[in-house]
Each structure stands twice: as structure tokens, then as C-alpha cells.
């Protein structure tokens, strides 16, 4: 080590020791002023916390400026599906329509704050209230068959224009009108007396559906007839949480008592936001409450002192509120998942109290006075606590530079929470212990050893065997960790038993065309441009479908013919019609069946134009569709925003049989500016972002830890004692994740940083107490430091690890990973580290 470096390290050590001496003098001489000043800071932090806005949208945890996730969110916004509510009615086929009518009526009448709660409620292919505009569109479509008719159906269309077919169609129309079927039938007969729509509408209806529905049903009904889908558009966006909560309450009231034999479940952004927020808050509060009781129980059963035990919640609340208050001044909002850091503060905040109180109690048991025992606890053990807190906090704070909000926000909150909890312990615990010893004096009683004396003796007698066993265990789990894969499905991180999650799964299982979907966006300045370019992309996708690499392809070009398709249809129609005059034949057939031809003037004019018809611009067809009851087709596939037209193509696939990288290369060759998104592409993008941010944070945090450990120990042996147990602990953690079937995901990846920071504390505290100690004092020092480390590990598991039992997948994965990592690191620190120190025989004589 150079002279300059040695001087720098000595100066830093002197500054830390001087700082701790100042804290001890302040808390010893001016306890009242210390408490009063701390309470003032707490009040200011509470005022800041009250202004914090919490969010629950999981997508806001990740960068959304570009890439697959940006396009995914754009498509949700463009198509309106981001804010739609989906109702699933499940029961007997014959009971579903009546139940749907009742539910739709209640939803249309539902009001929030004196205004309608929904803009639109749909569950039929064509709403009965829109029969007139539907008939008008039918008239337009059959008069221009070149636009919407599949060229392969041209012969069938021409066959319906023969005199014999006309007679049959008009007799059918007469029978339907005589049956009194209603205004809808009259409008349709007037628009299309020859039932030419039967060759056009199935194609249009199939193209307008995003779900795998029964093509014969007038309702959004599953093919097995067991599920009916209702789609409702809320009047206000999901970000208005007050509206969302009232809406969900209204939905629950509306669906109550619809039909005892029909179940109604709901999914959608509003329901997810309200339920996810409630589930997360409930899980977090339950975990915090239960873990707090466990932590307090462990502390009290070990030390048998009530006042220090009751101080722990004060320290935790102080550290948490200061962290939230400070973060509230920096961040515009805080995600509810990041708020789960409170559970970690319960464990870490207790750690510092354990180490300080254990040293104080041990010194009092050894016969030292109150002042000297407190000074040793704050200045000597406090030095280790200070370094431990710094090695935990700074790796988290280093994550603040990450572009991934999930990492940067949680890193900031945990880092601040750790530092504030440490200072809360330094400022609150000494005055309280001084007060308790003066007001409620009692003889010092021996503290439980938890078998640590036996561990010390055993590892001292068999250091080689213990060390080899530790190396073998680490190697085995390290080898297993190579099989750890990444979980990219964001839906698996959501509450697993919430209604919104289960309903969405039911939709995907019973109604989706395929489990996964890629969306390709072709963007330009005009409808004609994007339709022409989209045709090339559609042909590319169709080749993949023909090779069974895609399950289905859907886009607007499948229902609107381009100029080539229109020319083919017209050529075949003209060839079949020949020199006949279908308009004349139709006029005669109308008269023969008793119809007034003047009522069918538009139909007659359209049939008369057919032999000389030419191509129709795609933009005209789009506008007619947009103004018809089939507008959902245009809204799903074609969106114009800010002078740009976005054409969306949906490619449905099942899994790995679709070679996405190959398709994307082919897509760039066909249309270099086209964009694509899919669950797999989003997962890859987020994985890359998390990986990059994590590596940067891990590197910066690791460098900071090494520097802090070097400052603390001034030796490689001390650094190794702190780093090796946590390194082995991480290897065991990742190996255990493989053995237990867990996968690495966007959330539990940050546990690696957590373990790196707080896991190094365990070896640090043990080495700090044992380094240079006389042989005779070794057992007592190890027992004292080991007891604090053991309790710290247990309280951390009880705090952060309690998240393992939540219903929220993201939190549960964090909890289990923490349990594995903390438990393994504590084991190596308490067993392998003393064995290694005994084996080297450098520090214990």
C-alpha cells in the first residue's frame, strides 16, 4: 500500500471514529436535545410522505422510451384496450344471452360522480340499436363486392345474380318479412334483397374479432358455448384512482344476482389497478406486521429487556419515514412494489440495535460501568456497524443510476432507509439504555449462546474438514446455478389469485387464437401507403403461417382487397356474368314477387354498375368501415395519430416454433421501418435493461464495498473474511433457486445486490471482533459477535424474507431469494469463517 493511500485510509478511519465519538458525547450529555431534534426531523419527513403519490402499474417499473415495450404500450393506447374492462360470463349456453342483457343494462345505467361510468358496452357482433347503419354498410359492401369479397368467392357471388337464384332469394325475403321479425330484417332486405351479404359478412366479422369466437353466434361467444365476453369502455382513464375504486365498487354491485347459474368475472386495467393496489398493500402490511412481531419476539427472548425491545419499532418507523420523505422530495412518485423495502428495513434496522445492544449487555456482564459500556458499543462496535451500514447502503444507492425504475427507485429507498435506520439506532438507543439502567437497574444476566460455543470448539478441532465441506457445498450449488434461467413473463410477477389475473388467464386459455401474439406496426403518412407496405408484411407472415410457425395472422388487408385483389374479383365476376343484365333480371324478379322496384333503386343501380366497375381506394373502404357498426375492425388495425397512420398486423404463435429473430430479419428486408413487439421481445428488452443496469450497479457497488472494507480492515485477510462468506452464500442461493424450481426475474435479481451489501456484514462483524484477540478471549468474542450475526440473519429473514408468502409473484420471488441468500451467508459466516481462520492460524493464537 502506498504512503498516500495509507494516509488517506488513516484519515478516513480517524474521521469515522471522531464522528462516532461525537455521537456518543451528544447522546450521553444531551439526550433530551437529541431526541427533540430527531422528532423535528421526523415531523418534516412525515409532511413530505403525505404528498407522495404511489403507483401500481408494473410497466412503469421499466424503461418505456423505445423498443418492444414502447410499441406494446402504444398499441394499448391506440386501440383503447389499455382501459377496457372485460367481463366473462360463464355458464350454460342458453342462459348466457339473458344474463348478458341484464348485466349490460346495469352497466349502462351505472354512474360514478353523477355521470355514466361507461362510454360503451358491447357483447354482440352487431348492436340491435345499430341495425340502420349496419344495413347501410351492407348496401355499400354488396354494391362494391370487389372491396370485401374474397376473390375465391367471385363465382358464388355471380351465381346469386342468376334469375333462378334471385327468385329463391326474394321468396326467402318474403317469408322473413311475413314472419314479423322486426325492423332489422326490413332494413337488411331493403339493403340486400339477394342475401349477397352472406358471402361478404363472414369474412368481415372474422377479421374484426381479436378472440377465437363462435362464428355462427350473434354474441361474443366462445366456440364451446360456455363463455360469453362483454367489453366495456370506462368513461375515465385508469390513472384516476378515485374513479377506478368507485367504478370497481359499482361493477361489483352491478354483477351481483345476475343469475345464480352464471358466474361473472372481470378483468381490465381499472380492476387490476384497484385489486393489485389492495393486494399489494394488504400483503405488505401483513408481512410488515407479522415480521415485526417475530423480530420483537426474537429480540426480547434473547435479551429479556422490554424498553430496548419497544424501541425497535420506533427506529424502524424513523428510518422508513425519513427514507420515504427524502425520496418524496426527489422522485415524482413511488411504485408500490418499491414500498416493499419497508420489510427489509425491519430486518436491517433491527440488526444495528442487536449489535450495539449485544455489545453493551456483554460489557455490562463483564463488569464495566454504563458510560464505558455504551462508549465501547457506540465507538468500537459502532465502527463495525457504520461500515456494515455503508457496505449495505452504497451498493443500493449505486443502483440509483440505473435506467430501470425497478432498480433505481428501490436502490434509493433501501439505501436511504439503511443509513437513516443506522443513525436512528445511534441517536435513540444510547439515551434509552442510559435511562433504563438508571431508572430500572437490574443485575446483568448471562445471554444465551445458541450453541455458538460448541460451533467454535468444533470448527477449531476440525478446521480442515469443515473448510472442505464448505468448499464442496459451494461448488455443488455453484454448478447447479448454471442451470438458472430467466423468467420474462411479466404476468407471472402479478398477484396470482386476484380476479383480474385469473380472468385474464381464462380469456387466454379459452378464447385466444394462440397463447402469444406479435404485433407488427407499419407506419406512414397515408392509408394507401401503409396498406401497400402492410400487404408485403402480410405476405411474409402468411408464409410463416403456411409453414405452421404461426398459428394465425390477422390484419386489415385480409378483409379489404388491394388493387390486384379487386381486379381479380372484378375480372372473374365479369367473366361469369358475360353479356347478361343482372339489373334487368332483378327488376323483373322484384315485380314478380310483389316488391316495389322503386324501393330498391340503390340495389338496382349497384347491380347495374357491376359490369363496368373499377377498383375502389382503400381509404374509402376504411372510412365506410369506421362509420359502420364494424368500426372495431378499423380501431383494432388502423389508427391515425398526430399526422401518422399506424397499421397493425397481429401474428399469433404458440411458442418456440416461431423463429422470431429470423422473422425480424425478414421483416427488415421487407420493410426496414416496421416495428414489432411480443411478450418474448419485451422480455428480452427488459432483461437487457435490467442486466445492464444491474451490472453497472453491481460493479460500482462492489468497488465501494471493497474500498470500505479496505478502509475498515487495512488488510486482504479482513476483506476476504467479509467477502468469501457472502460469495459462497450467493452461489448457494442461485443453486437453491434451481433446485426448488425458481427462476431469476426482473425483481429478485436485485436480491443479489442486497445479499452482497448486507451479507458482507456478517463476516465483517465476526472478523472485527476476532482479529488480534488473545486465544483465551476467542470463544467469548465469537459467541458475542456470532449471536448478533445469527439474530441479524433471523430478523432479516423474518422481515424481508416474509415476502415469500405473499400472493404477489414479484414480492414472493424476492422473499424466497432473500431467505436462501441470507440463510446461506449466515451459515458460512458462523461455521466456515471461524474454521478458515483457525486453519490459517494468523489471527487467533
TrEMBL record:
The record's subcellular locations are: Cell membrane
On the tree of life, the source organism's domain of life is Bacteria
Q: Cite the SSD domain residue spans from the record.
A: 309-435
Provide GO CC annotations from the record: plasma membrane
SUPFAM superfamilies in the cross-refs: Multidrug efflux transporter AcrB transmembrane domain
The protein's name is RND transporter
Q: How is it placed in the membrane, per its record?
A: Multi-pass membrane protein
Residue ranges annotated as transmembrane are: 32-52, 284-303, 309-331, 336-354, 374-398, 410-433, 465-486, 694-713, 719-740, 788-805, 817-839
UniProt cross-references to InterPro entries, sorted A to Z: MMPL_dom, Mycobact_MmpL, SSD
UniProt keyword annotations, A-Z: Cell membrane, Membrane, Transmembrane, Transmembrane helix
- The UniProt record lists the keyword Chaperone: no
Pfam families per record: MMPL (PF03176)
